[in-house]
Amino acid sequence: MVKVLIVEDEPDMLEQHEKNLAERGIPCEGTKSSAKALMKVEQDQEIGLLIVDQVLLAGDEYQAPGSTVVRKANKLRCNMKSFFITSAASPDLTELPGVQAVIDKQEIEKDQDAVYDQIEDCWKHLNRFYKGHKPNFEAVVKLEGCHEDYQEETPLYVGQDYILQVEIQPKIHLVREDESPLDLKPKESLPVKVLISAQDMVIKPDWTQACYLKYSGESSSVNFILTPQKAGEIKDVDIDFYCHQDWVGVLTIEVEVKSKKAIQNGQI
Length: 268
Hints:
Layout (H helix, E strand, L loop, with lengths): L2 E5 L3 H13 L4 E4 L2 H10 L3 E6 L4 E2 L2 E2 L3 H11 L4 E6 L12 E6 H6 L1 H20 L5 E9 L10 E2 L4 E9 L18 E10 L2 E4 L3 E7 L5 E9 L3 E12 L2 E13 L1 H5 L4
Parallel strand pairs: 1-2, 1-3, 3-6, 6-7, 9-16
Antiparallel strand pairs: 4-5, 8-10, 10-14, 11-13, 11-15, 12-14, 15-16
């Protein structure tokens, strides 16, 4: 279920948001810190909707504004949706990616239900988008050398770098459970986490990265750099795929790793 993250430095307003969302059965959590908000977005894959104040204070000091939180959150997760509820409303805020509405705090005093109805409608849409469907895609894995002497299906060598490219390609456009078309915006996509485990190899830049299952039909890819550390006959490289923390599949490739020094000495 999609979770709402509230970024609000005024305790009374934060409490009001939490109370109204809880009454509607919407899971949420709040923070007064823009830095902590971005950490939560990065760490918690269930956060899909933000309620953000534009002006955020820590004591008498200004923090990064809500617009910065929204912009950076969308870089971490391309489908992130946001509502600005702020006394510093500006038309420019509507131009930020994923922003659904910019609402003056006075509007809550005038018609509180209307404001939270908008948020609830967006939350329900995100739940249909994220949770009602299983990802359907094909994965293509390609291993390339960073050196001119590498050719496909030849052994890998200890200490040399190799690029492992993982590409996912949508097989079909998703539909609802009743098989009616799913109303998706052109830029919407599902994050698919790719995890690499490689026997006796260093993995860079990290062992996990995110691809995106795009409903435009475009493919998405990520690159890992593998550096073999130990020679041996056959090494396994496992590529696991997760969507919303659920495991959805694995691919395994087998590679042979040799030592160039051993070859030069006639040991292999």
